[in-house]
Amino acid sequence: MPDRERRPRYVLVTDWVLAAPRERIFDALAQPEAWPSWWPCLESVTPVSTTHAHDVGATWRCTWSSRLPYRLTFDMTTTASHRPERIDATASGDLYGTGCWRLMREGTATRVRYAWKVSTGKRWMNALAPLLAPVFRWNHDQVMAAGGRGLARHLGVTLLACHRLSDDEDRRCTTC
Question: What is the pTM of this model?
């Protein structure tokens, strides 16, 4: 693909605020093979490499469903991991780009910020993006909200907030 097509078409930044310490949340996020047990939209996660999930170079194949009638499958490769503050990864397949988890203390709670800067690898999605971008963003928001609720249940804690930053805030976000 030409470089101009590889630039992220979507910059989606979601915040979860959970009544839990960063270390517990980090440990859950560092185990993607367990995500399907608490993240309803995640159908499967299979290891592609044999390293530990939070180790740099670990690769996992993820298949996601959503509220819309399509699935996305892509490989996530860990590019940085600093317990308990951040995990960075690259995506390739039906989506390509970067995803970054940042865990920030907020009193006794933790703000979990996920920045997803990606483009689609599916032709039909690229062709329809000018019309359907708002629907794709809405769908992403639904998937992330389900993840926040699922993680809170998994940890036995309260999800205090879940929201996507505004489009202007998304564009200004320096996470990743």
Answer: 0.90
